[in-house]
Amino acid sequence: MAHAELLTPTGLGDLPAALAGMTQRSRLLAGGTDLVNAMRRDECRPDLIVDLSGVRELAGVRREDGVLRVGAMTTFSQLQVDPVVRQYAACLAEAAAQVGSTQIRNIATIGGNVANASPCGDSIPALMALDACVTVLDGDGRTSSRPIRDVVVGPGATSLSTGEVIIDFTFAPLRPHERSVFVKIGSRSAVTVARLSAAVVVECNPAAGTLSAARVALGAVGDTAFRDAAVEASLEGRPANEATAQRFAEACANAVCASIPGRHSLPYKQHAAVGLAYDAWNGLAVSPTCEPVWD
Amino acid sequence: MRLTFTVNGRRRGIEVPATTRLIDVLRVHLGMTDTKEGCSEGECGACTVILDGKAVNSCLVLAPQVNGRDVLTVEGLAGDAELTVLQAKFIEHGAIQCGYCTPGMLMSAKALLLHDPDPSETEIRMALAGNICRCTGYTAIVEAVQDAARAGVEQNGPR
Q1: Chain B residues touching residue A3 (CB < 8 angstroms)
Q2: What is this structure's pTM?
Q3: Which residue of B has its CA nearest to A34?
Q4: What is the interface pTM, i.e. ipTM, of the complex?
Q5: Which residue ranges make up each domain of chain A?
Q6: From CA A291, how far away is CA A82, in angstroms rounded?
Q7: Could you tell me the CATH superfamily of domain A178-284?
């Protein structure tokens, strides 16, 4: 692999100075599972690598002021077992558990997954369903926050400028009457790239016996993961019964059709969406009375 | 860059380009060729080593990421002494044929047993899901790990 200069800032305070030296050719090194492959294939030849492994503040999950803050350098292995994530953002823990192999999850990070912006990145639909915001730091030391949908803008493309880095993700922890799930279909059951994925958050209203709100994001279907209003409407205000599950599955299949018209994979994904929707529905396990049930 | 880290309990310091992969640090710069390179892209698991107690693909890790950290390779399991129970069980169960995947299989299994000395069969299969074997099939390998766990001596650290 071509040589590159290396900067390893040792804390958040040192990071902006390192970012300020980045050019369009420079790359951030998070877990490296995508970057090392890209460099080996000669798809990129960085002039400078800013290694984030020394910035300890970027790893870990914190709950503060009613907000969950997931550091960009948190690995998928950490996310899949983190008790706070499992309780308050189950879909993210489930997505993390389905990324690659143990070896990949031990080093790959959520920040890298989002910045790589693969259409089949598992964490992206989960973050969209959680309505997450992305905190970005630049070379002047300024931070800003933007919705995840404004960060992942195309296949392999983000709205991040040269010298900007994702430092964390923030979202509201799910409340006792909300449930979430992440499901995916790949070519095999483990260590697989998503052919189709979905993350769902629903809010239960036991007084009305209905699902009062829903956020649904689909992944690996089209250029980026996306929230779909029609799919969400298929759940909202509906009772938790088979008829709703069926409407939801139809809406998911329709969303797939609308997203990849004419694509060779459409006939497969259109049918797969129905099965995936039922997997999600069963995973949500909302009781018929929409009572809040925590595992 | 100056890379200083611990390999199999021994402190090493070498000068390498920052874009050097851990597998090349081990095989090329340190002459430790027991760790095998297979697919080179994190799919096959042949190059698995243990970094600070966790299994990683050494083909996907760059030198700066191991600076100051602790690496255990398959050479470090037995050292110059007799084979560990885990290694002996692989032989006993016929879990080795061509042997190319074996260093990676051993290190994934070792990482599992370090954290969970009594794993279920499902947990063993999940821990080995990132390691591909093209000859024996997986049954003998899973049985070897189960047997090693039963023997129970692998829980007492890396040696």
Answers
A1: 17-19
A2: 0.95
A3: B60
A4: 0.94
A5: 5-54, 56-171, 178-284
A6: 26
A7: CO dehydrogenase flavoprotein, C-terminal domain (3.30.390.50)
